[in-house]
Every structure is written in structure tokens, then in C-alpha cells.
Amino acid sequence: MSDPSDPVESKQPSIQVIARAAAILRALGSNSGGLSLSAIANIVKLPRSTVHRIIVALEEEHLVESIGPSGGFRLGHAFGQLIHQTQADIISSVREFLNSLSAQVRESVCLATLAGAKVNVVDCIIVERELRVVFSVGIEAPAYATAAGKIMLAAFSDDALQAILPKKLQELTEHTLTRAQLIAQLQDVRQSAVAVDDQEHIEGVCTFAVALETYLGNYSISIIAPSIRAGRNGDTYKAALMDCKREIEKKIGRMSKGAVASR
């Protein structure tokens, strides 16, 4: 029996299907490694059979894809294409700089935007070398545990952060910051203009990021590297990011300080 108090259940049937599909896509977007049908059903609080029917429809449109014999699913390439198209202006404007940055530091780099308390990857360059970090467009991650997220969170006032951040930050690794530690670190990020994630999101992976404050919107550029290289190359990554930021903002224009400070 349906629950009339459930906002998804209370919608008209055709709208309800869209709402359920959106909930499934959000669940997959928050779990880059993919999820089983049971895990998805648990997250979106729907019967497994219902989730399966929607997954099949999404898979036919390439919005979702199977990740192999395990039976799990992740976001499909068509989802990434949709994001790419909506962000076409910024992507076409900065792609050459992302390529140059990746070639310079020999690491993967990404362009991301902030959506509530999460960051969303809208473009990426994957470096070609034996030990590398691989990810895809459309991936979401908690802003508090990534350099891309922290550099954009630093643009908000402390009052605004109280509303944006969860009351308790989920511990993703043993290095994940507490809420109090994050707030304190953001003060330093505002001064240095560079954010660092030291294995706070994924064990063995470090990220470094700067903000892009342009008339096309607010974004961040990140370098994503294995921790074994990040430890010795961190200063090089930071300097390369600052140079890249200056070149991009010189080309496409920088948002006024007043506009940024008004958040």
C-alpha cells in the first residue's frame, strides 16, 4: 500500500515515475563506484522490483549502465553528455587550460561546480600513466571532503555554511575532518586561495583546488593525484593551479569581489 505522506507517492503517476527516476540517479551520482539494486532500493526507499523496472528504462536510454557480473549499476555516458551540454560554455572556454594543466603536472584534473553540499564534476582530463586516478563526468562527492568543494565553500560566510553543511559530517576515511575542523580550515583556505583534501574523501587519493569566479558561474579546478605523489609534489600542484586560474580568468573575465563577498 502506498504511503500518502511520502512526497514521491503523493504525485500523479507520470510525475511519480520521473521523481523516482530522479531519486535513483541522485543515489548513483552520490556513489561513484556504483550500487546494487538492493542498495539503490534501500536508499530511495522503494521496492526492489520498482527500482529494477526504472533501472531497465534508464539503461535503455544509456542514463544508467551495468558495471559487470556483480549486477551493480552506475551513471551512464548519456548522463555525462547531458551535463556536458548544459555546461558547454564554461567547458569550451577552459578545456584547453585543463589539458595544459594536466600535461604540465602529469595528473588527472577536473572542473567542478557546487550543488548544495556536494560537488559535481562537469569535465575532466584523465592523465595517461601507470598510476593514476580515474573518475568520470557526473560524479558527485561531499563538498566537505574534497578540495573542489572546500574551495567553493570558503566563498560563503560562516552563517551561510551553517545552513549548507550537514550537522554531522560523515566520516569517509580516518582523515575526514569534523565540522569544527572544517570551519577552521576554511579560514586558512580563504587566505591561501587553495584548498587541499588529504585523503579525506578516498584513502590514498589527494586533491588540490582553486576557485574560478567568472561571469559564466562559480567553478573549481582540481588536480587529483595518488597520495604517494601528492606528498612530494603538493607545492608544484598549487603553483600550477594558481597560474591556470589566472590565465582562465584573464581570458573569460572574473566575477567582481563584491559579488563573491555578498554570499
UniProtKB/TrEMBL annotation:
Keywords: DNA-binding, Transcription, Transcription regulation
Organism, scientific name: Pseudomonas fildesensis
Every HTH iclR-type domain range: 15-77
InterPro entries noted in UniProt: GAF-like_dom_sf, HTH_MetabolicPath_Reg, Tscrpt_reg_IclR_C, Tscrpt_reg_IclR_N, WH-like_DNA-bd_sf, WH_DNA-bd_sf
BP term (GO), one: negative regulation of DNA-templated transcription
Domain of life: Bacteria
Gene3D superfamilies according to UniProt: 3.30.450.40, Winged helix-like DNA-binding domain superfamily/Winged helix DNA-binding domain
Domain IclR-ED: 71-254
PANTHER family: HELIX-TURN-HELIX TRANSCRIPTIONAL REGULATOR, ICLR FAMILY (PTHR30136), HTH-TYPE TRANSCRIPTIONAL REGULATOR RV1719 (PTHR30136:SF35)
MF term (GO), any: DNA-binding transcription factor activity
Protein name: Transcriptional regulator
